[in-house]
Design goal:
single chain; 348 residues; mainly alpha; two-stranded parallel ribbon; 6% strand; globular
Length: 348
């Protein structure tokens, strides 16, 4: 039987989570705001940076390239897929953060309340371990494992998304073109005003839980294994509020206003990630103008944790991750331009 104070705390956590889970922009900001207050929770910053990519993928569906490859119904289905996953992760992760904050405020362990928030028993064990040992790495990797496992049945194995998104020809095209890039912008000199640079990784097989967890571990390494790199990424994130437009990190290539003339024929504009002479920037709208907020049905109940072997992912990897991605990303953009030009031949 819960005390009145515990019951009130749970209501406050649920309400605050709902308020901040309105859309990708509010979620992404909430992660960063929390991290700035609690830098020991590394996943909050990793979640912020990955969530930015989720927003960019959402607005891509209304941007210059993918809008030419998909009809409106398909774009709405893909958005639903991205939005549901983004929403699910936040409504699972953020209550954990709020409960941790209350633990600090009261200076006592409150993680016995996690099951009442439908959090996996796996994370109850890991938060209790963190409360004792303060192992930031272990908690971050545990959260990576938890969130990707949480998505497995609710998104990846969900027949709706499996049939309408993961098996769709457009998704296969993106996968073949390595369009599943996770980009981490950072200031070259670690100071505002310097030209933004990019690091990152590419997810080859979204439908593989193993690949998604290993990607999460590599992304964690990119952000936290080198203090200088973390500082550059953190300074960039703080000084560039997330809007959902790719203009946030590359205003030389993308614009959140459509520079093109209505009805004008699509032509190639990029060469080596630079605009061709006389070409206008690729349209990448802000999220608030691209998509309306979504009213979600409640998350599916059930604990994903059913086999102890998952804990093997908690082992620390010593591999050095360099994160070189600009060349591959630029090549992807140019390939997508070619696919957009060849659309009639491909989809006819």
């Amino acid at each position: 039987m819960l005390s009145r104070d515990d019951d009130q705390l749970l209501r406050e956590i649920r309400l605050k989570t709902i308020q901040l889970n309105a859309n990708n922009v509010t979620r992404t900001k909430a992660y960063l705001d929390f991290y700035r207050c609690h830098p020991e929770i590394h996943w909050a910053f990793l979640g912020h940076m990955v969530s930015r990519n989720g927003g960019w993928n959402m607005t891509d569906l209304k941007g210059d390239l993918l809008s030419r490859l998909m009809n409106e119904k398909t774009r709405e289905t893909f958005f639903s897929f991205l939005e549901r996953g983004n929403w699910l992760i936040f409504q699972d992760a953020y209550p954990q953060f709020l409960l941790y904050r209350e633990c600090l405020r009261q200076n006592r362990n409150l993680f016995y309340l996690l099951p009442y928030l439908n959090i996996s028993v796996f994370m109850e064990v890991m938060w209790n371990q963190f409360w004792k040992k303060r192992d930031c790495y272990l908690l971050a990797i545990a959260l990576i494992i938890n969130e990707q496992s949480y998505l497995e049945k609710r998104i990846v194995q969900n027949p709706l998304y499996k049939n309408k998104v993961l098996h769709k020809f457009e998704f296969v095209v993106q996968d073949l073109l390595s369009f599943n890039h996770i980009l981490f912008p950072f200031e070259r000199g670690g100071h505002k005003g310097e030209k933004t640079a990019l690091s990152g990784q590419t997810l080859r097989h979204f439908d593989s839980l193993h690949e998604r967890i290993m990607l999460g571990k590599r992304l964690y390494s990119l952000l936290f294994y080198h203090k200088e790199q973390w500082e550059k990424a953190f300074h960039w994130a703080v000084s560039h509020p997330h809007t959902g437009s790719r203009k946030d990190y590359w205003q030389d290539v993308f614009n959140d206003v459509n520079d093109g003339l209505p009805g004008a024929a699509f032509t190639r504009r990029l060469k080596g990630c630079k605009l061709r002479t006389g070409a206008h920037r690729l349209f990448s709208p802000k999220l608030e103008y691209a998509w309306k907020n979504v009213e979600h049905k409640e998350a599916e109940l059930g604990d994903w944790f059913n086999h102890w072997r998952i804990v093997e992912y908690l082992q620390e990897d010593k591999e050095i991750i360099k994160g070189e991605i600009v060349g591959e990303y630029c090549e992807t953009l140019e390939k997508l331009e070619l696919v957009a030009l060849a659309k009639k031949a491909i989809f006819s």
